[in-house]
Amino acid sequence: MELEELSVVEKAAMLSGGSEWDSRGNDRADIPSFVMSDGPHGVRRQLGEGDHLGIGASKPATCFPTAGTVANSWDPALAEEMGEALGSEAHDLDVNVLLGPGLNIKRNPLCGRNFEYYSEDPIVAGRMAAGLIRGIQSNGISACPKHFAVNSQELRRQASNSVVDERTMRELYLTGFEIAVREAKPLTIMTSYNEINGVYAHENKHLLQEILRDEWGFDGMVVSDWGGSNSAVAAVKAGGSLEMPSPGFTSVRELEGAVKAGTLSEADINARAAEVAKIAAATKLVGVGRNDLLKDDIAAAHHDVARKVAEGSSVLLKNDNATLPFKAGTRVAVIGDMAATARYQGSGSSKVNATKEENILEEVKNAEGLVLAGYEQGYDRQGKADRVLVEDAVALAGKESVDVVLAVVGLDERSESEGLDRSTMAIPQVQNDLVEALKGAGKPIVVVLVAGSPVELPWIDDVAAVLYVGLSGQAGASATVRALTGEINPSGHLAETWPMHYEDCPSSGWYPAIGRDAIYREGPFVGYRYYETAGVPVRFPFGYGLSYSTFTYSAATAGENGIDVMVSNDSDVAGSTVVQLYVRGPQGGVLRPDRELKGFAKVSLAAHESKSVHIDFDRYTFRHFDVASNEWKTETGEWTLMVGDNAEHLPLTIPRTVAGDVNPVAADTALGHYLSGHVKEVTDAEMAILFGHEVVAPGKPVTFDVNDPIMSWVDSKGFVARTVAKMLTKQEAKIRQKTGAPDLNTLFILNMPPRAMSKMTQGMVDSAMVDAIVKIANGHTFRGLGGVIAGFFRNQSANKRTAKELNND
């Protein structure tokens, strides 16, 4: 039977999940259900139902470095190799759609989920994501880039409205997705929880139809984030294919009713059902069992791949007096709790049950050429001050048998997680105090820094070397020690700027938004685009990374299709560097940051070897989005091409005359502070010019509706709702303090708006019951409870009727 011959209710049933992780198939049309699973850096195949946050157990799988770490490799080919292994494991664990990679722009370093995202720059994010997607899909598995789009904070993530001007959205927040879609052709894409300019992502026609499908040519399935669907009817009209997880049969009835009422075309139902059916057919797994585990030889091989990725992604931030690599026979005092108990991934839905774990202490002990002179914990993992731990560490460091101190410090498990944003850019104070105290031992201090995002470094001038390993996956410890001993040469470059202090960040004054509207008032001045334009000093610039080798760039020339530059390794050590191309637009043209990355190439060179490196121009090199014509344009005139190894160090400059399709158009002087990049001083009037309309953040709601998060009920007039919100808030804080890890389920509930209850309860709650729950939030407790009770029985009867109708079909 053809898909179009199915009844409306059958086709509507295909547009929402059948369980927490499975789609609904249709036997009559020979359309199987398929399995989706989290997996941006490892397959999280859950063993039980009803768990989308990774609270319960999952099948063992390789935990690769997180996206924020992999991006530091600037190596799409390495990401593709990692993707091939990921896709292979997804296939073997009976997963059809792997939910990753995440490639949202890192707007602010405090976003709790930044470790899952690649970069502050769309070119890096898009190219790295494209590599991973190609690798995953080479196994007959669908990748699923996410979260589409303009998703930048965890606070109120299901009830937040990202307010952004069109040009900034297109050039900065969507270009990475565009590159991934055009270059890697993912079969699936996941929408974000938030609204974009007042319209939920999963029902945003401008985003899903006009841009994603019509402009970029995407022809796959659009799936909601779990619980991220608002109106099933609006989603189907706009281009949302599948809502997850199972909302029971509520959405089925809504879609069927809309078709009967003439407010929804059956052609739209057909289009969306065809997109779901296409994934079922394209990813159909043969001969794979649900209970299969990874074979030992595959697990071992993929552990080696994870190590290779970690090795290519570590960034040498400082190396005074060639302290690293350690010389043979170096006696090393290892200090730091994270040296013995590794932290190698973040918290949340991406957490992987690793097939193997390593730690730096054991790797140092077993490393050829190193002598372990002792180990001390140094600090309490949960941040509790402990003078004895510090004194013991300093005593070890001061022993004559110690040549160098290896301090492993960074962010703890509570600091980086889905569901909450960081409160500070500092690492725990007890760790800073430890590094400060270790100075007294008079030994060189080498810091291994573990964190998925930038941190402040108050002790940077007092240590000899810093190796930033990020969140480096299950093989990160051995990769780290190989870098420390010189078995491999660190070649990573930072994919985001590290500011001196959090207050230096362009959005620090309004991030995260605590109300409904998250206003992106900084416009395009994010990351290095801000720091380099406004002249704000940074700790480490975007693209920065040292090496045990030294490199020279020379003889840069620009041709019709790209630039060529000679790169020489002037040292006795083989190594790799990242050649980076930035452009500056014509003088007197449209508003732009001072420089923007437009291409890069990682090149490996033997000792004293030279190579010519080519970087292509492409559709992204010289364009800007013209809001008035709703088109991409290129300004005619003299552009400046700049080549170097980070956003600040660009020694080679080439003028380039470009024949575009418009003459330079001077930016409106009324943009004021935007013209110099000083966005912290931008006025509301200047922002109105950038946005094309006045932007006013609403105050606190007088009454609550279905889209206000449960955390906002602390201001409810109703005692019951107010008590629930306060109780949940206290519970989450208590559990986080007790366990040292965030309480993800409670955080999800606090951030969740009531409308998500009808999407996350397997059909136990429908939209009418949600309306009754909102009455409770607005102080009408008994009326609301009565509505919930009556609605429950009414909904159960309706579900039985729908199930019978589907079975009869």
UniProtKB/TrEMBL annotation:
Keywords per UniProt:
Carbohydrate metabolism, Glycosidase, Hydrolase
Establish whether keyword Cytoplasm is in the entry: no
Record has Nucleus as a keyword = no
All copies of domain Fibronectin type III-like, residue ranges: 577-647
Pfam families per the record? Fn3-like, Glyco_hydro_3, Glyco_hydro_3_C
Q: Describe the family membership recorded for this protein in Swiss-Prot or TrEMBL.
A: Belongs to the glycosyl hydrolase 3 family.
Name this polypeptide is given: Thermostable beta-glucosidase B
Species assigned in the record = Bifidobacterium pseudocatenulatum
Q: Which gene encodes it?
A: bglB_2
